[in-house]
Amino acid sequence: MRLTLVIASLAGGGAERVMATLGDRWLAEGHEVTLVTLYPDSHDVMGIAAGVSRVVVGAADAGAGRLRRAQLALGRLIRLRRVIEESRPEVVVSFMTKTNILTLLAMRGTGVPVIVSERIDPRCHRVGPMVRVLRHFEYRRAARVVVQSSAVQQWAGSFLNPDRVVRIANPVSVRPTAVVTGRAADGVATGVDARPMVVAMGRLVSQKGFDVLITAFARLAPEFPEWRLVIAGEGEERERLRRLAEREGVADHVEMPGWVESPSELLLAADLFVLS
What is the pLDDT of residues 101-122, one digit of tens each? Predict the structure, then answer.
C-alpha cells in the first residue's frame, strides 16, 4: 500500500516520535511510505528510515504581513496538494490540528481517504476561532479521526459521527531490559550519581506544566534533599524553567538534558516517573 504521512516537522516531540515510528514500521512491513513535512530537515530531531521518501512543502513566513501570509498559505496549500498527489497515495495520514486541517483542505475532491490524528487533548489546547471552526467542519470529511483517550473520543463524537472516531494509544517500542550503569542518556548521570532521580519528559512548553512540577519538587526538597529532578525534552520554556529552579533554590537538583535519543534508558534508571 502507498501511504503518505503529513506532519509539520520532525522536531523533538511526542507526535513527531510517533509519526517516525509508524513510518519506519509501515516501511518494514513492505508499504511504500512518503513523509511530507511543512518545515525543512534543519528542524529535524527525529530520524527516519532510509527507505522513507521525504518531501518538504515549506511553511508560511510568520513575520510577513497579513496579506503576504495569506498568499504564502495559499501557495503552501497548493504545493501540499501537488506533492501528496505526486506520491500517489492510497491513504493519507496527518498529525496535529493545524496540519490536519491543511491536509483535509488540500485533499478536497481527490477521493483519497485522509486519516487525521489529534496528538493532545483539544479541550485543553488553545487555538484561534478560525481553527476551531475549520476543525469542526473539515474533520467531518476525514475517513477517521484518531484520538488517544476515551474523554477526547467522547468530545470528538459530540460533533462527528462517533463511528469515525477511533481511540488508539501511543505505540511503545519494546526492547530487552538492560541494566543501566554509567550514563543513561545525553549527559544524565545514573550509575555515577547515586542520588534518587525523579524523571519527567515532554516538550518544554507551558502546556506541559513543568513549572508546576518544579515548584512542587522545590516544596519537597527540604524533606528529601538527596533527590534530583530530570526533565528530558526541549522547547521555548527552557530559560524560564531554569530561572524558576534558581528562584526556588533547587537549581543544583534540577537537570534539563534536552532531547534524549533513548528515553527508555533514562526511564530504567529513574526511581520515580512523573507525568505532569
Answer: 999 999 999 999 999 999 989 9
CATH of the domain at 203: 3.40.50.2000
Domain assignment present for 173: no
Pairwise CA distance, residues 256 & 254, whole Å: 7
What's the CA gap between 79 and 68, in Å, rounded?
Answer: 16
Last residue of a domain, one of 122, 141, 167: 167
What's the CA gap between 34 and 91, in Å, rounded? 11
User: Could you tell me the sign of the dihedral formed by the alpha carbons of 140, 143, 146, 152, in that order?
Assistant: positive
Q: What residue ranges in 64-110 does DSSP mark as E strands?
A: 91-95
Whole-angstrom Cα distance, residue 14 to residue 187?
21
Rounded distance between C-alpha atoms, residue 155 and residue 136, angstroms: 11
pLDDT tens, residue by residue, 169-213: 988 766 554 444 444 444 555 545 678 999 999 989 888 999 999
Is residue 158 located within the same domain as residue 214?
A: no
R_g (Cα) of the chain, nearest Å: 21
In a domain, 177, yes or no: no
Give the Cα separation of 93 and 56 in Å (integer). Answer: 16
Residue ending a domain, among 116, 142, 167, is 167
In this prediction the pTM is 0.81
Tell me the helices (H) and strands (E) count for the chain, helix number first: 8, 13
Residues 193, 140 share a domain: no
* Phi, psi of 83, rounded to the nearest 5 degrees: -70, -35
Count structural domains, the chain: 2
Q: Which residues contact 91 (CB under 8 A, 6 or more apart)?
A: 1, 2, 3, 4, 112, 113, 114, 115, 143
